[in-house]
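Journal club side-thread
Mid-discussion, someone asked how the predicted structure for our own chain would compare to the paper's figures. Pasting it here so we can look after the session.
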Amino acid sequence: MNGLNGRAFGGILKMMVFLAALVFLPAWTVHYWQGWICLLVFFACVMGITLHLMKNDPALLERRMSAGASAEKEKSQKVIQALTSMAFVALFVVSSIDHRLGWSVVPAYVAIGGDALIVLGLVFVFLVFKANSFTSGIIEVAADQTVISTGPYGLVRHPMYLGALLMLFGIPIALGSWWGEVAMVPMIAGIVLRLLDEEKFLARNLRGYDDYRHQVRYRLAPFLW
C-alpha cells in the first residue's frame, strides 16, 4: 500500500469512528438500527468512491485529501468551512438526541428512504469526480485546469454541492429524525455562501469560466437557482 492509499484508508477510519461517536453517544445506546444502517450506507459509498479514485485517479484523491477550514487558503472560506463543519456535526447530534428523547416518529420505510437519499447524493458526487479530475477539497485552481461543461456540469455549475445537499438532507431522515433537519438551515446557508465566493474566485482565476456561467444558467438547483 502506497502512502496516499494509506492516508486515505486512515482518513476514512478516523471519520467513521468520529461519526459513530456522534451517532451513538448522544443517543446513549448502541441499540439504534437506524444509526447502524446510516453509517454502513455512508461508509460503503465513501469506500467505493475512494477505491475507484485509488485505481483510476490518484491525483484527484490527493486533491480530496486536503480539505476543511485549516486547509483553505482564502480567509472567507476558512470561516465558511468552520460553520458548515459545525452544522455537519449538528445533523448527527441533534438527530441522535431526537432518537433518545423520542421527539420524532419516522416510519422504518421513511428512514430507509433517507438512506437512499444518502446513496443518491454520493452517486451524484461520484459522477462529478468522473467528469472533473480537478475537484479539489478546497477552493483553488491548478496550473493546467480547464473548465468542465459536460456531464453533471451541464446541468448546474456546482453539481458536487447539489449531490452533497441530497446526501446531507438524507442523514437525519435515515437516523429517524425530523428535528435533525433544522441543522440543514445553517448548512444550506454555508454552502450558498461558499458557492458564491467560489464563483468570484473562479471568474478571476480560471480562464473561460465567465463563458461557462453564461452557458449553464443554474448554479445549484435546476430550474430554480
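Post-session note: The chain has a mean pLDDT of 91.
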